[in-house]
Structures are given as C-alpha cells and as structure tokens.
Design goal:
Elements lengths: L2 H17 L3 E2 L4 E7 L5 E7 L2 E8 L2 E3 L2 E3 L3 E8 L4 E8 L4 E9 L2 E9 L4 E6 L2 E3 L5 E5 L11 E5 L7 E9 L5 E7 L8 E6 L2 E5 L1 E3 H6 L14 E3 L3 E3 L7 E3 L2 E7 L2 H5 L3 H5 L20 E5 L12 H14 L3 E4 L6 H4 L8 H13 L4 E7 L15 H14 L3 E5 L6 H16 L3 E4 L8 H4 L3 E4 L20 H7 L27 H10 L4 E4 L3 H6 L3 H6 L6 E4 L8 E8 L2 E8 L4 E6 L7 E10 L2 E13 L3 E6 L4 E8 L4
Parallel strand pairs: 24-25, 24-30, 25-26, 26-27, 27-28, 28-29
Antiparallel strand pairs: 1-2, 2-3, 3-4, 5-6, 5-11, 7-8, 8-9, 9-10, 10-22, 10-23, 11-21, 12-18, 13-14, 13-15, 15-16, 15-17, 16-23, 17-18, 19-20, 31-32, 32-33, 33-38, 34-37, 35-36, 35-38
Length: about 650
C-alpha cells in the first residue's frame, strides 16, 4: 500500500470515529462532520430522523490551496452550549480550525486559519445540499443594496448558475423551513451564495465590475456598472488585530418546523460579538441610543423646495403634532449655502443648528444624511473614508445637536467597505450618534455588536417605485412585500421607508396595505415616506401615531404563505396589533384570534374601503380570544388592527 492510499485509509477511519461523536442538540439536530472516502471534508445535518442537509463540502481556498482537501480531523474539543472546535491537518502539515455551534433551531460554523501575515482568499467551499424538490425564495441582487432585488421562487433542482443573496429561505419536502446567511461579518469580505449544481448552494464572493475597472474601491460606481458583478476575484485579508488568525464570519443555517419559528430565530444574536463596554456601557440600553420613528422629505412632492430649511421646519411641526420623534434631513442639506434664498452668508452648519434648535423646542430630533464616499461623477460629495474628515464631521454633528446619521452609497461588501462601516460606527459611538446605513449590504448581526446601528437598507423599498422596468427592476409589489418578512427581515430591520399615498405608493397595493406595512416592515428607526399633509389627515392617523418600533413579541399566523400572504400578530406591552399584507390574489381571510390571552377585547381595524383602493376605513368590533375574524382582502390589500384588553371594564 503506497503512502497516499495509507493516508486515505487513516483519514476515512478518523472520519468514521468522529462521525460516531457527532454533535446533537436537544431537539434532535444532528451535525455530522467527517472526511469522506474521496478524502474531502464534508458535513451533513439531520433534524430528528429527517435529512436536512445532504453530504456537502467544507473548506476554504487560501493562497490557492484548498483547506479541506486531503485533510484529517486530529482533534475535537467540546465546550458549553453545543460549541465544538475541530482541528484539522492537511497532508502537507498545515493546521486550521472549524468552530461549530449547534442550537435547537439551527447551526453556525466558521473557519480560523493560523496566519502570521496576510492571506489571499480565492474562494470558499462551504456548501449546503438540500433534498430534491426543496423550494427556495431569494433575492437575485448581489449586494442587497436595495435597487436590484428580484425575489425568485423556484425549486433548488433549478438553481445552478444562480446568485442567491443571503438570507435565502428554503422549504424542504418534509415541511421544514430553513434560511442561510452569515453573521459577525468583521475584517472579512461579505459573502453571497452560488447555485453550483442542482440542490446545492455554496458560499462565495462578488465584486462590482465598476469598482474593478475604475479603481474605485467603494461607493457608487458609474451607472452602467450598478448591477454588474464579477465572481470570486481573489482578495487579501490580514489576521484579526492582536491575533495570529484569520477568522471568517459564521455561516448560519436557521431551521424551524414553521414560519413562526423561522421569524423568531435568534442565532445571529447568539453568535455576534458583544458590544464594547467603553462605547456602549449598557449595550443596547445605553442611554443615548433611542429607537423611534422619523419622517424625511426625499419622496414627498415639491421639487427642490422639499429639501429646504423651511420645509424641514414644516415637517418638524407635523412630527410634533403626531408625536414622531425625528426628522431626517436627506441629501442636499450640505448645499444649503448655495440653494437657500435667505442663507445670507450663513454656513450649512449654522443653518443646520437653526433647524436643530427649532426642532428641539418642539421635542423633535434631527438626523442628517451623508454619502459614505464620493459618488462617481459627483463634484460636491465629501464622504467618510478619510479618518480625519470622518471624525471632524461627526464632531460637528454632535456639537450642532444632531442625534443620528444616515450614511449612504456603500454599494459593495468588500473587505475595505466592511472595515469602513465598522470605523463609522465606532467614530459615531464616540460622539454618541445613532446610525442607519443606506445603499448597503445585508445585516449580519452587526447591530448586536454596535447597537448604535439601528437599521440597514438592504431592501427594495419605496424609493425604487417607478424604476421597476429600468434602474430598479423587481417583481410585483404585493408579491415582494409578502416575501420580505420571511426572507430579508430574518436577519434584521431594514430602511424600507414605508408609507406613501402619492407617487411612491405602487398602484398594485392599497392604502390600507401601505398603512399596515409600517407594522409589518418594522425597524427601530422607522422612517415614513409620506407627505406630512397625508399623515395628518389620514383616517388611519392614530395607527401612525401609535406604531411601536421595538416589539416584545411577534407571532406569525399559520395562514401566512411566502409571496401570497403575510399575517403577523405583534405585542407591545399589553397591547396587541395584527398586521396583514395580501399578495396578488384577492381572498377572504379567515383567521382564529388565538394568540391573545383569554379575555374580552376591543379591536380597532384600519382596512380598505370595499369600493376604493385609495381609501382607508376604520371600524371597531368586540372580540374574545379564540374567536374567528373574517376580512375581504383585495389584490395587494391589507389591514392593521389594534387590540386592547377590556376584561376589567
């Protein structure tokens, strides 16, 4: 027997031994990692007795050498909470580690590669092989920066050659739901999924072609490259600061027997780094971090006047009347010296201070917009790439009284941009500034590590209405909105900017659908896109005034079906809300109100007028827990209900 055959026999035997010592969770999730007869590192996963992930490759291509080929498992250390560390050795002697965590509702794994200096990543072998006839929903846009998000609905048998933007959701033939994404993305390139063969998705990396051809490393490239990608271009990564290891993000598989369990999955929170106590003494409860609602004027009527100081004061007045916490001053404020008729030599900072003081007197906060880096062809953008400029900008915002920043146009998740986002969050925290990221990649648990990050766009929201056939292609809005709660929202809140009753209300959805969307497509920084006059005069005004942004409980109703109907019950304190968005097919919704504790309740419902898609009707009914509720839903319709306990009256 030659040396190669001997090594194969030894590796197979060791793989067999570790197969007998596979990791099992309390609910019968079984992770089996081994070296197969072809001398490849693989894993499989079962849930109870049901196969979930069939034999699938693991490994990384580092310095043009595939870790996971011709490797053997030489050690396995078990820790608390389903944490197991595998140590592997390549034939030529190289060592690497795989950390695995098995939870009752899924798994997470990551690689740690010893490194004294930079490493070149050529690709990744981590794959998930589903049983045939698994159904999947995924966005086909590469970065999920929002403009291109055409959610597909197909069988995994037909995904070869496809790009699947995480999180992708799967419905297995045995009824289980699954979702794949990544978590704790720091000091590493963000990933997508590739359909490499029928029923198999594989982690990989994409670059924007415009960045590569122009040499612009981040930010908005020329328009012709907005959606152009190049797959698996090698890139360089250095060890984590203060260590001698390159550490990948966690590769996460969520699992549930129903959509309710999938929506309530908490794995990202469990595997994300904890906040730095020097920046966030009390984590998410640090006193200057205050989730809330906001308005902005970017999608309202009025031409350039909508960006003026006077118009923002008008919106401050409206927010004060509605009890909305903030106004976001969008792109254009840094040109006020040129655009304001009564600037009278005042700087943009002086005019911003005037607005901040005006708002403060009315108990309203001000946020401001800035591009992360100069947009291609824009002569006025400054950006935040330069550390000195970034620190100076944030110091001035803090001194002026600004409470938060909306940072836009990242347009990639390469290593440079991932590090830029983290530096922005750190510097903002030093000045006690909250942040939302727009034109950006998907959440990866980063808001758990940096709780001043309240939301990331990473969604095809209302600002893309009108671009469906050109710069922002996508599916019909009723379908899109009933996919989002079970895909994009699985990994964190988005900056969808919901609620509009004018040009940015898609004709395919009703006004009640729009109103309900602020309860469905929720965020700790919930920015309304509606014109102020419409919110003040809306029959559903009380639902705008009272919408929570942080919830105590969410229940997905069993009538929900991805792409057809989204129905959620949410609780804040002792008040329940029912939010329903309908897809393209009109229906009679018949649901059992069994999510309520026993008692008598008053339900106030904002629903569509039967004869007018652009009219909201309000009605009140008495109801008991366990009763049934029937509502007629138009194509693209919906409703929202507020449910208050009246048992003590």
């Amino acid at each position: 027997m030659n040396i190669r055959m001997t090594l194969q026999v030894i590796s197979s035997f060791i793989g067999f031994i570790f197969c007998l010592q596979s990791v099992k969770a309390d609910n019968q999730i079984l992770l089996d990692m081994r070296v197969n007869p072809a001398n490849r590192l693989v894993f499989s996963l079962s849930y109870g007795k049901e196969p979930v992930i069939l034999e699938s490759p693991l490994g990384l291509n580092v310095d043009n050498h595939v870790l996971g080929e011709n490797a053997k498992i030489i050690d396995k250390v078990e820790g608390a909470g389903g944490y197991v560390v595998y140590t592997l050795q390549q034939t030529e002697g190289a060592i690497f580690h795989i950390d695995t965590r098995v939870f009752p509702d899924g798994i997470a794994l990551r690689y740690r590669i010893p490194a004294e200096g930079p490493k070149c990543i050529y690709g990744e072998e981590t794959s998930f092989t589903f049983p045939s006839q698994t159904r999947t929903w995924y966005a086909s846009g590469p970065f999920q920066y929002g403009w291109l998000q055409q959610y597909q609905d197909r069988m995994t048998d037909h995904i070869q050659g496809e790009l699947l933007a995480p999180p992708a959701t799967f419905h297995l033939p045995n009824g289980l739901y699954a979702a794949i994404t990544e978590a704790n993305l720091f000091n590493y390139h963000g990933a997508v999924l590739f359909g490499t063969e029928p029923n198999r998705v594989q982690f990989g990396y994409v670059e924007n072609k415009g960045h590569m051809e122009t040499g612009i490393i981040t930010g908005l490239p020329p328009a012709k490259y907005w959606h152009e990608t190049v797959w698996n271009v090698p890139w360089i990564v250095s060890p984590v600061k203060g260590t001698n290891e390159v550490v990948t993000p966690w590769r996460v598989l969520m699992l549930s027997e129903d959509l309710n369990g999938l929506v309530n999955n908490k794995i990202l929170a469990k595997v994300s780094d904890k906040p730095d106590k020097t920046l966030f003494p009390n984590g998410a409860d640090t006193d200057w971090i205050k989730p809330g609602r906001a308005v902005f004027t970017w999608l309202t009527e009025g031409g350039i006047e909508r960006l003026s100081v006077d118009n923002h004061k008008k919106y401050v007045d409206g927010c004060s009347e509605l009890g909305i916490e903030s106004v976001v001053v969008d792109d254009g404020w840094e040109l006020w010296q040129q655009t304001e008729k009564d600037a009278n030599g005042r700087t943009k900072w002086e005019m911003l201070k005037d607005l901040v003081d005006y708002a403060k007197e009315r108990n309203v906060n001000i946020w401001v917009w800035r591009s992360s880096s100069p947009r291609f062809g824009n002569r006025t953008d400054i950006g935040l790439v330069d550390p000195i400029e970034r620190a100076d900008f944030m110091r001035k915002c803090s001194e002026t009284g600004v409470k938060g920043l909306k940072i836009d146009f990242f347009h990639t998740e390469n290593l440079f941009t991932v590090n830029l986002m983290e530096n922005i969050l750190k510097d903002a925290a030093k000045e006690k500034l909250m942040v939302i990221f727009h034109g950006v990649n998907k959440p990866t648990g980063d808001s758990y590590t940096y709780p001043n990050l309240l939301a990331k766009e990473a969604v095809r929201g209302l600002e893309t209405v009108g671009g469906e056939s050109s710069w922002a292609p996508g599916p019909p809005w009723p379908y899109h909105n009933t996919v989002l709660p079970f895909t994009r929202w699985l990994v964190g809140p988005a900056d969808y900017t919901p609620l509009n009753f004018r040009a940015f209300c898609p004709p395919s959805v009703t006004f009640a659908h729009q109103l309900s969307s602020i309860y469905m497509l929720t965020s700790p920084m919930l920015i309304f896109a509606a014109d102020m006059e419409d919110m003040l005069s809306s029959p559903g005004r009380s639902f705008i005034e009272s919408v929570p942004v942080v919830w105590d409980e969410t229940v997905v109703l069993p009538e929900s079906e991805i792409g057809k109907l989204a129905a959620l019950a949410r609780r804040k304190g002792d008040v329940w809300y029912l939010t329903v968005l309908n897809g393209e097919d009109a229906r009679i919704l018949d649901i059992k109100i069994d999510f309520l504790p026993k008692g008598n309740y008053m339900m106030e419902i904002a629903t569509d007028s039967p004869d007018n898609r652009k009219q909201i009707e309000i009605k009140k009914i008495k109801i008991k827990s366990g009763q049934r509720l029937k509502e007629n839903l138009m194509s693209g319709g919906g409703f929202v209900a507020r449910i208050v306990d009246k048992s003590s009256e």
